[in-house]
Amino acid sequence: MTSSREKRALLAITPGEPAGIGPDLCIQLAQSAHLRDDIILIADPEMLTRRAEELGMPCEIRHYQRGERPCFGQGVLTVYPVAMAVQVEPGVPQTANAQYLLDTLRQAVNGCQRREFSALVTGPLHKGVINEAGISFTGHTEFLQHLAGRERVVMMLATEGLRVALATTHIPLKLVSTALTQERLSQVLSILISDMKTWFGIQTPRILVAGLNPHAGEGGHMGREEIDVIEPVLDHFRNQGAELIGPLPADTLFTPKWLAQADAVLAMYHDQGLPVLKYKGFGNAVNITLGLPFIRTSVDHGTAFDLAGSGDADTGSLQTAITVALEMSANLPYSLS
Ligand SMILES: NC(=O)C1=CN([C@@H]2O[C@H](COP(=O)(O)OP(=O)(O)OC[C@H]3O[C@@H](n4cnc5c(N)ncnc54)[C@H](O)[C@@H]3O)[C@@H](O)[C@H]2O)C=CC1
Ligand SMILES: NCC(=O)COP(=O)(O)O
């Protein structure tokens, strides 16, 4: 075991919606016989104790103290406590807990920004439940962007052999074309290229860029976004040395011939890229927010209310999110305080 001063990685996990599978996954992973000192949870301790009992996996909850070595494993969880408004039954969310959820994220971000935590790993939230509480919320990605004061961040999901970044995230499909401006696409590409280098050591990433329209617009006969927006931006970046291929028709971009040449794909909207990624790797993929001043990874799935409290939820994606956060933590440009 290392002392806290020597530590390079300390992950803060927010288990997310308490009525969902996020708490289950943390409790299930903490059953491991391997005792580790690089993970804490930011959550309601009573909720975790109750869920552990419901799962038949009793846990010892220790309160996190800064500077003291945390424990995760052998049935022990170290928790930075944040109190929920009301306790929940598995599968039955309560809008009264919306502020609790956002508070866990605020605490985690504060800890990352004061360099206490090396990374934030998030469990799934239910966006609808938070909105039903009267809080406008489209996802962690946009909320973390807001907390960090960044003009733009980039959602990228990754699984073995495929990384897919998105030019737009959680907006209605009918707004995608309007949102897809040269300015936005330039910001997204700039972050993607820079963060592939910073976090993954890829100096000049080869990026496949999808068109927006069927057949990438068919030369302007099926839409003009490729000609008016995407191509000028790609040309600009190519002139600076970027290796960008496209705009390619999205239906044939995701074939081995193209993917074999690429470090990442840039899709124009959420459901252009993520169904392919999840078909390939659901359960073993990670969601990474690029462009933040700290590391954030997440699971590839949602709250799965149908599985909460059952013990049947698959921990694969949370395990992947933890592994990737640790790998990225090794490239942090500063030491933890
Ligand atoms: N990182 C996050 O916070 C994410 C949150 N969501 C949110 O989750 C909510 C529910 O979304 P859905 O579309 O229903 O997707 P979902 O991922 O919660 O469920 C889809 C299907 O996959 C299954 N599933 C999900 N995770 C699983 C796991 N770990 N092991 C085994 N089976 C699993 C579920 O049982 C369900 O059949 C929505 O509000 C959505 O916005 C969705 C994706 C990511
Ligand atoms: N499809 C990914 C997703 O919905 C997760 O979004 P976020 O909460 O990580 O922004």
Describe the structure.
With 337 residues, the chain is of the alpha/beta class. It has 2 domains: 7-150 and 292-336, 3-Layer(aba) Sandwich (Isopropylmalate Dehydrogenase); 153-286, Isopropylmalate Dehydrogenase (3-Layer(aba) Sandwich). It is built from 12 helices and 12 strands. Strands 3-4-2-1-5-12-11-6-7-10-8-9 form a 12-stranded mixed beta sheet, with helices on both faces. Strand 11 and strand 12 (295-299) form a beta hairpin. Helix 7 (182-200) packs across helix 8 (225-239). The longest helix is centred in the middle third of the chain and has 19 residues, at 182-200. The two termini are 18 Å apart. Mean pLDDT is 96; it is low at 1-6. Bound molecules: 1,4-dihydronicotinamide adenine dinucleotide and ligand LD2JLWAY. Residues 125, 139-141, 274, 287, 298 line the site of ligand LD2JLWAY.
Beta-sheet strand percentage?
Answer: 15-25%
Overall SS class: alpha/beta
Q: Using the 3D structure, state the CATH architecture of the largest domain.
A: 3-Layer(aba) Sandwich
Order of helices and strands: EHEHEEHEHHEEHHEHEHHEHEEH
Ions, cofactors and other bound molecules: 1,4-dihydronicotinamide adenine dinucleotide, the ligand NCC(=O)COP(=O)(O)O
Which geometry do the CA atoms define? globular
The overall strand count is 12
Number of domains: 2
Give the biggest sheet.
12 strands, mixed
Q: According to CATH, what is the topology of the largest domain?
A: Isopropylmalate Dehydrogenase
Estimate the mean pLDDT confidence: 96
Instruction: Work out the radius of gyration.
Output: 20 Å
* pLDDT < 50 runs, ≥5 residues: 1-6
